[in-house]
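User: Second chain of the day. Same drill as before.
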Amino acid sequence: MRLTQKKRWRTRQPSGQNKRFEVGREHNPLNRLYESNGPDVKVRGPAAIVAEKYLQLARDAQASGDLIAAEGFLQHAEHYNRVIAAAHEQIRH
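Assistant: Same format as last time:
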């Protein structure tokens, strides 16, 4: 005869430690981390860091004479600059 025992289900995080998912908590979108898979590179970090990295990659590509790659990097940088502008707009309201 087999005895069944009641198992206690455990949550992944003890209560109070998972602050990221609290309801009603204000988030700063400028601190959000992004992981960007660009044309030939993977860039991680906040939007400002990612945008600056793509600008630097565009300068380097232009200096080496690869204008097509430079344009691609500039488009990626422009996207993240728009993300920053939207975050500023969200914070303002």
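Residues 67-92 form the longest helix (26 residues).

User: Great, on to the next one.
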